[in-house]
Amino acid sequence: MKLRIVRTDRSGLYESRYAQYRGLDRSGPTYVQHLSASHPANEAFYRYCEESALHGYLNDESLAKSLVQIYAEFDVNQPLEIVEFYSTTEMPAGTTAQFLGYDLVTNNLAFSYLANGMLDESTEIADQMTESERLEEAIVAVTASYIRHRRNDNGLLQSAEDALVCAECLGVLRESKEMGGVHAVAVYRHAE
Fold this sequence. Notes:
The protein is of the alpha+beta class and 192 residues long. 31% of the residues lie in helices and 16% in strands.
């Protein structure tokens, strides 16, 4: 099980251009400056950082639930939720989690193409672009056109098929720049 703790509000270090976006590319818990380092909320934050540092996610469900509970208990003004995610080939059987949709993320899970508006309509002027930039712009434009009416209420893609098509297109773009691939991942709100 891969878990990520994310903010449910629109504040924090990163804000999606889409208010309804509920994928992986959202701010997580942060250190609470006005509390001591030994406060339970900050101790939980340190543990979260240690446990999630290697992969960017947690495997320990009890730790994830504990951190969310501690932040809520001490009212540190960071509303959090736990999301679990799976590649489209490892979908969970019989999960009780709420399906949110499919996100398009980079290898390290640190960037979502659906969160930041990269797949919006292009504003670049083709005459001022290199051949490589025109190719990149064309791939992004085709992908943007494809997903325009396929986003669900969570700002994610609803079908695995659509997510895989987009991941393939964007993967070609990233691989041409030797940046690694793009993955379609199913995102669920973890059952509490």
